[in-house]
Amino acid sequence: MKLAVFDFDSTLMDGETIDELATFYGVSNEVRNITILAMRGELDFYESLKSRVALLKGMKESDAIMVCESLKLIKGAREIVTELKKRDYRVVCFSGGFKFATSHFRDILGLDADFSNILHTKVGILSGEVGGEMMFSDSKGKMLLTLQKLLKVSKEDTIVVGDGANDLSMFAFASKKVAFCAKEILQKEANIIINNKDLREILNYI
């Protein structure tokens, strides 16, 4: 058995989920400025996540779900998942984003699992609070190590794909480290760099 782990925002989907939510809710400038700093590694991921989600306080849960389920997949997302599964990979998604999006696209893409965060709601309204499995800058690395032990998959049989600073913690546990249209901080640590926005290019390296 082999394991492939994909980031969600700007990797499986074309853009950042929280930016799309913020645009719909009218707080895009405030959220985008925090997102940029976080993805560059200039802000602690946990604090930046909480700060951005706080700006969504008062948004209708139904609107948030609608936005998340309307996201656009990146070119080649369906094809790369299908092909990797043909090659005996378990394919999962790790995201600092939200279950409203990752669980929906898990089913669409046929992913084996998704690990992300949950937007807290009260009586159908976002409270501005967030919790979940991917709250910290090292969460993805820790979850990857857990899955490898559970599934008995080696580092050599693991590929990880991401674009931002919070994907960096996965790289220590994978032999194939893919920086996909990535920030410089991630490209420096990658051994596979893809700058064309098409996930099918990963097939050239496996």
What topology emerges from the helices and strands here?
Blueprint: E1 2-7, H1 17-25, H2 28-39, H3 45-54, H4 61-69, H5 77-86, E2 89-98, H6 99-109, E3 113-122, E4 125-132, H7 139-151, E5 158-162, E6 176-180, H8 184-187, E7 192-194
Parallel strand pairs: 1-2, 1-5, 2-3, 5-6, 6-7
Antiparallel strand pairs: 3-4
Helix pairs in contact: 1-2, 1-4, 2-3, 4-6
Account of the protein in words:
The structure is a single chain. Helices cover 38% and strands 23% of the residues. Helix 6 (99-109) links the parallel strand 2 and strand 3 (113-122). The chain has one domain (2-205): HAD superfamily/HAD-like (Rossmann fold, 3-Layer(aba) Sandwich), CATH 3.40.50. The longest helix is centred in the C-terminal third of the chain and has 13 residues, at 139-151. The mean pLDDT is 95. It is built from 8 helices and 7 strands, in the order E-H-H-H-H-H-E-H-E-E-H-E-E-H-E. It has a 7-stranded mixed β-sheet with strand order 4-3-2-1-5-6-7, sandwiched between helices. With 206 residues, it is an alpha/beta fold. The radius of gyration is 16 Å and the shape is globular.
